[in-house]
Design brief:
This protein is mostly helical. It has 13 helices and no strands. The protein has helices spanning 2-14, 19-24, 26-31, 35-51, 54-66, 69-76, 82-94, 101-106, 113-127, 144-156, 174-186, 193-200, 206-226. Helix 1 (2-14) packs across helix 4, helix 9 (113-127) packs parallel to helix 10 and helix 12 runs antiparallel to helix 13 (206-226). The longest helix is centred in the C-terminal third of the chain and has 21 residues, at 206-226. The radius of gyration is 21 Å and the shape is elongated. The protein starts with a helix and ends with a helix.
């Protein structure tokens, strides 16, 4: 099945074949309603989309919508299985389906921690790191693995840090505070040196203090080199 999907998608991307012709293709028409086919095709489309830009990405987006695969992903959000919810959020946010945002946001209150975590990842993919405001005062804990994923999402999607990101240093959720500091260090945002210095004087959390010291050292060294 994977080989069939790969062949169809590469034919679609690199020949003059359009999505209407592909959807009439005997293999696509034959397997289109099969759940395994849908699952494999969505994963393959996302993988290709992450590796291509411009016209190729637009074609993949078009196929995802016109083939009905977007509805396959949307149905997962209504599933009672948390694993389906996670997969649906991941599919839709990776494909930048903005209409799914409000449904994804509702999963912040899900009883399963993995679903809540995937929801914030999805929201950031769709709207940017400012979505951390949604959990600024919640008890949703962003562990180190999740934070690494968020930084990767920001880099891969070329999402810029908002100028008011430092406002989140006032968050009651210390994992959000830690992520903000790490994001500033990761993107070498020297304009936030003063805000971080001021915050360093007001916190007693050891993990945050350690991260602050490392971040300020890097930013100050970078700032001095630029002079």
């Amino acid at each position: 099945m994977q080989a069939k999907v790969d062949h169809m998608l590469f034919q679609f991307l690199f020949t003059s074949l359009n999505y209407e012709e592909l959807l009439r293709n005997s293999d696509f028409a034959l397997y289109q309603k099969h759940l395994l086919f849908q699952k494999i095709t969505v994963k393959a489309i996302i993988s290709l989309r992450n590796n291509y830009t411009g016209e190729y990405r637009l074609k993949l987006n078009e196929l995802y919508v016109e083939s009905g695969l977007v509805e396959y992903s949307m149905k997962k959000l209504n599933s009672k299985k948390w694993s389906d919810n996670v997969e649906g959020i991941r599919d839709l946010s990776n494909m930048n389906v903005q209409k799914a945002y409000s449904k994804i946001e509702q999963f912040l209150n899900h009883k399963n921690n993995m679903v809540r975590t995937e929801a914030i990842l999805g929201m950031i993919r769709l709207k940017g790191i400012g979505e951390l405001n949604s959990i600024a005062n919640s008890d949703i804990y962003l562990d180190d693995w999740t934070q690494s994923n968020i930084l990767y999402i920001l880099q891969e999607n070329k999402i810029e840090l908002p100028s008011d990101l430092v406002d989140l240093l006032n968050s009651k959720n210390l994992s959000v505070v830690l992520l903000v500091i790490r994001a500033i260090k990761y993107f070498n945002s020297k304009e936030h040196i003063k805000s971080l210095s001021d915050y360093a004087d007001s916190t007693s959390d050891k993990k945050i203090t350690t991260e602050l010291v490392q971040t300020l050292k890097k930013l100050n060294e970078s700032n001095n080199q630029a002079l």
